[in-house]
């Protein structure tokens, strides 16, 4: 059945979901899916994994994006599926065809593939993990002090997403120090408690640890613990500094505890669970994000589909014991960060348009706050406001507002766990991915890379964090074409912030460095190596959870 033809522009996420729902309710299922060969099936499965599985799930049962199971996709038909893949949606689905990331042939292949039953994803055993484990420099051979005179706590780790590498850049001189081979499409970087080690996790499930004390910082160990992953963090509580790391997997749904120095896998725990509300079993209950407490030996894991927050006590891992407090929260949990006190963890339930607040001291659900359409805070942004006291802010993929929530129930109870301020961004539509500030900066910075408007997605918006007024809109220089400005990150002292110019894999771009007081562009970090830069992580700010 051919439902519609859409080639003129982006369509809304609501329309996408609505068309699928309407089709399921009114049309007869196709007797058989369109033909596809074994080789095409294999190729399409890889495209789906690379571009689609994160939002729609390996089993295609939906999460951030709608379910794409054959009972639905066959009723849409190949032409309508091609249109959605080509054009994207205003709700945040990328326009894979318009961007030139997927060819028309690949889009047709993917549209046909989606009408077949998803192939069963492989599992991964401890034995298989250990077969991938490599230690390039044993702990006893590593230096006992930095082998260089550089200000390593002001280093930046820069993700070069589509080339599978991480660049280490000196935040003082802005010079490239080294490029490290990591996993495919690195999602995040995290620093150890000491800051010496930087950990990466790729979407291919490969974790790497980089020693910043080496004369030329490089990876000292790696291991593949999942087929698909998004999160990694380390043990930060006193007495456990740099001792453990933990990876949260999308597939197989699990978390894996690793030795912090060598990445030797120590323990696998399945996260397949039950939806918190309906109590139905969900095999694909994925770990969306992780934060590490500074005040207890716990990791906070967000179990996306189940709508649960797990507080994982790692203090007795060496004795074979892991204690988990499971807190029912809301679907579908995505990303989040600490409040200023680092007692409360705030995480987006982005398909329910809510922020979940977890009290990690009392180990209970503190509040659920209604916000805007599809919140996407990254880590969020913390502000000590003269009127509202400590607040935490999130942007949204689905609309142009920023929501700021009071986080001080003792000092400012009248504002606690309420949206105390809505900040409107210019233009129409959403598309925000990250917002950021710094205690030494008077500004709140926000990007808009998923907005379809070419001008908005190349813009950075600067707000006064006391008045919330728009101070300035920064534009990526016109010489960089077909790009997106993404991911703000301050340096150690908050005197400047860095922005990635995100282009295609074959298109060298830049990292832009702005003066945090004058808002003037002070440096363009360029070179043939600057390809698909996305997230940037300052060592000091990451180790201290400053955002």
From TrEMBL:
It comes from Persephonella hydrogeniphila. Pfam families: Cytochrom_D1, Cytochrome_CBB3. It comes from the Bacteria. This is Dissimilatory nitrite reductase (NO-forming), cytochrome cd1 type apoprotein. Residues 1-21 form the signal peptide. Residues 39-118 form the Cytochrome c domain. GO terms for molecular function: electron transfer activity; heme binding; metal ion binding. Keywords: Heme, Iron, Metal-binding, Signal.
